[in-house]
Amino acid sequence: MLLWFCKEDCGFVPLFIYAIFGSSRQLAVGPVALVSLLVSNVLSGIVDSSDTELYTQMAILLALMVGILECIMGLLRLGWLIRFISHSVISGFTTASAIVIALSQAKYFLGYDIERSSKIVPLVKSIIEGADGFLWPPFVMGSIILAILLIMKHLGKSRKYLRFLRAAGPLTGVVLGTVIVKIFRPSSISLVGDIPQGLPKFSIPKDFSYMTSLIPTALLITGVAILESVGIAKALAAKNGYELDSNQELFGLGVANIFGSFFSAYPSTGSFSRSAVNHESGAKTGLAGVVTGIIMGCALMFLTPLFEYIPQCALAAIVISAVMGLVDYEEAIFLWHVDKKDFLLWTITSTTTLFLGIEIGVLVGVGVSLAFVIHESANPHIAVLGRLPGTTVYRNIQQYPEAYTYNGIVIVRIDAPIYFANISYIKDRLREYETAVDRCSRRGPEVERIYFVILEMSPVTYIDSSAVQALKDLHQEYKMRDIQIAISNPNGEVLLTLSRSGVVEMIGKEWYFVRVHDAVQVCLQHVQSLKDTPKSAADPVLGEKPSFLQRLLKQRADDSSIAQLESGYLTSPISEGNDSQLEPLLSRKA
């Protein structure tokens, strides 16, 4: 294989660099099958594979370019893009990838070659078609070693005093397999074979003439490497209970690739299988990578003859044992019971990863996850509030059926920032709430329609110019129908935006309140005044019905007691100034 020499260097130098600059404690950096496949396919289409020197130089140059791109992304703090990879996507991705990797190791158990693929269908098809070449010795040895590994893992997890067995499992499998091969020398069991000896030498990529043609490939490999590495690192971080710094992760991978290119390595990234082995072996810090690098260096210098007799079925058993713990079917069951939408996301990601490949699976999962985020943002939760009996607390009437509302008033809480993508949806819901009146739980003066819409805006963290314009249009629409908007408890940033845009003056400072209850008290007084205004109270000279605002001003002095208005009964009128609870959020101009 032309990339063999680059591959062994890829698993040595980047380990040390990533341990210094990376943020994951379990991620094993080095050559991976998917990146190797991408490099091989792309370079074969650019240069003649018979030109070994040029082929290797281009692979090294590609590592340098990928490293620079990753460093730039890390320095520009573009790691936030990785936040859109939800836990459901990562869980589905790791589950499907674990199954694919386990199947790819089956050839060492079965004794015959199978097709190299990141998709499950070609793997299964290849396994079935090659069944005539099945050999019992590697299957029996691999199965025994796998059983030993699983037993040691179970004992290490279930009994604290046997915890060392979990970490000793892989070494036990390798030693046992090597001893069996040395004693019985079975010809049907494939071995690791001869490994080139010596450490990689320092060199700088020299031929930059193909850089332009390699840019698309570098971008593709960077994207795939980041998605895979960060996806694996986030999954392992979640399993080990710590937070992952995506920016540092990108920078660490970039520096590892840059330094790797100086030691004849092609692009490296986080290895799923080796990271799983790290996790199962109990690695807790980046020191695991340093130790692995030191052992790798010593092995390259002195121990390569000893590795010649390691059976590949033993190594396959170690990989399968490691990835079995990443098949997260329990998460799927949990999501089914807790959140069907996340379960759907998990299913889509795992299915596309299995049938369309790892990179496509991650991209589809992230795309669907973003679609869910956009849908939730464009269709935010909006609640109609009612008052809990015996309190001044207002809560969602769907969540608290005992909460009651008031005739002529609708109280709406918007549970999201208001911006161009969701303002249309919010306006539609407000119109619905205006007409959909549930009279069964309503109190207060009997009126036939809505006169006040109170917007509880404490959950609204941001409002943009499109939403401001929509609020102006809504205010004008309501004004034409004699409906007044009242605003309750907007935060400082939202209030400043409304003030700068003129919405505060348009609605009126007296209609901004600290609490929902304050707004309800004022609105109740006006609803009662409207109810008491005779229908024949038109001007005898002009013969015109007073406008809504004129009626409000005229009847302000005759407002009734708040407590009795809330119960629907009326006694003697009170003055507005007698209740300190009616103070608006903004003082009016003199």
Q: Could you characterize the architecture of this molecule?
A:
The chain is an alpha/beta fold. The protein folds into two domains: 1-372, no CATH class; 382-530, 2-Layer Sandwich (Transcription Regulator spoIIAA), CATH 3.30.750.24. 57% of the residues lie in helices and 6% in strands. The chain has 24 helices and ten strands. The strands form three sheets. It has a six-stranded mixed sheet, sandwiched between helices. Helix 2 (13-21) runs antiparallel to helix 13 and helix 5 (87-104) packs antiparallel against helix 14 (312-324). The chain is elongated. The model is unreliable at 1-5, 535-545, 553-565 and 568-583 (pLDDT under 50). It comes from Trema orientale (Charcoal tree).
Shape: elongated
Terminus-to-terminus distance: 86 Å
**Oligomer category:** single chain
Number of separate domains: 2
Number of helical stretches of at least 4 residues = 24
- State the low-pLDDT regions, or none: 1-5, 535-545, 553-565, 568-583
Mean pLDDT level: 81
For the largest beta-sheet, the strand count, sense and barrel status come to:
6 strands, mixed
According to DSSP, the number of beta strands is: 10
Pfam families: STAS (PF01740), Sulfate_transp (PF00916)
GO biological process, one term: transmembrane transport
Protein name: SLC26A/SulP transporter
Keywords: Membrane, Transmembrane, Transmembrane helix, Transport
